[in-house]
Amino acid sequence: MIDSHDAAVAAAHEVAAALAPGVIRRDREGAATVPADALAVLDGSGLLGITVPAADGGPGLGPSTLAEVIRVVAAVDPAIAQVPQAHYLLVDVLAAHGDDTTRATLYAEVLAGRRIGNAIAERGGTHAQDLRTRYAGGRLTGRKFYTTGALTSAWIAVSALGEDGRQVLAFVRRDAGGVTVDTDWDVIGQRATISGTATFTDVEVPLVLDYAGAYEVPQQLGARAQVVHAAIEVGIAGGALRDARAYLRERARPSTEAVRAGAVTATDDPHVLHRYGRVAARVRAAEALLADAARTLDGIGLIPADAAEAARGSLAVAAAKAFGSEVALEAASELFQMCGTSATAAKYDLDRHWRNSRTHTLHDPLDWKYHHLGAYELADVQPPNHGQL
């Protein structure tokens, strides 16, 4: 079991190194090929259990460790880095609201390298959390989309409305009768997440907990989930910068105008130097903001003292997520401006950085994050208490 921050980060680097050779193939194949080998590396790394509380047999590592682990992996393959995002949220949900039996059962699975996938969002309603999935009589029926991680998980956490109309979280085995997870995931980026449709037809539910109550009190579940999303974006930004640097040093030629101005190599071009320096500074700023947000969550803990503490954590992560997303898109676009036309060759697959970021940044609106930051700073309005902030 990984039991320290340094060990977790070292394991993340090992996972990233193992993922690197296949990242272009996974991006190109998307849902046509389930990335079973890549996910086996992740699941077998020990990283799935790093946030399991010490009281439940885990190392109890916090958001700073988790954010750095995800950033390191996402810099190489952000799709694989996103697969366990909901897994870590669910580990937190269990810590805050799980009963002894549910915690003991699922934490034992997690510490053994068995991942929990999500089936929370739905299509067809007024919004993604307008639920039609129902839990009654110990059984579950419904249809979900954006089910990142569900296809290859051991367990799936499914949000549903119980018989009393309150939202519950039902944990079902991936291989249970009545569970079907499809590969109908056809998007421009984050292709290897295979976040398609899951259908549940009269599925037996062995474990269930009240989920509505999690957001009826001050909570950091949303912020802790969002810091993982922020780390994915910051990782993409760093990966784009890394690939731009390698291309400029190893492959790029100076433009005709740069040669006329005296440049011998692409890295002699003053405009390339300016653009690269600007992007590099912004990537470092995004990394620093992410680290600061994660440290803020470390200090608050999973269960905040009050609504003010919860707001402090949520807003710190909102700033990191919004800024990191903008920098990821910028770095992925500026890569081509710096490296030139030849860098657009399909064999390099450098456009994956932009496609991945563009897809992932739409997970939840960035404008609302800036809105809540502004409302708090200018009018002392606390942010809403939900899972996207």
UniProtKB/TrEMBL annotation:
Domain Acyl-CoA dehydrogenase/oxidase N-terminal: 7-113
MF terms (GO), sorted A to Z: 3-methylbutanoyl-CoA dehydrogenase activity; flavin adenine dinucleotide binding
Any one biological process term the GO annotation gives: L-leucine catabolic process
InterPro entries, per database record: Acyl-CoA_DH_C, Acyl-CoA_Oxase/DH_mid-dom_sf, AcylCo_DH-like_C, AcylCoA_DH/ox_N, AcylCoA_DH/ox_N_sf, AcylCoA_DH/oxidase_NM_dom_sf
Entry keywords, A to Z: Oxidoreductase
Span of domain Acyl-CoA dehydrogenase C-terminal: 228-364
Entry-linked Pfam families: Acyl-CoA_dh_2 (PF08028), Acyl-CoA_dh_N (PF02771)
Protein name (Swiss-Prot/TrEMBL): SfnB family sulfur acquisition oxidoreductase
Organism expressing this protein natively: Pseudosporangium ferrugineum
Organism ancestry: Bacteria, Bacillati, Actinomycetota, Actinomycetes, Micromonosporales
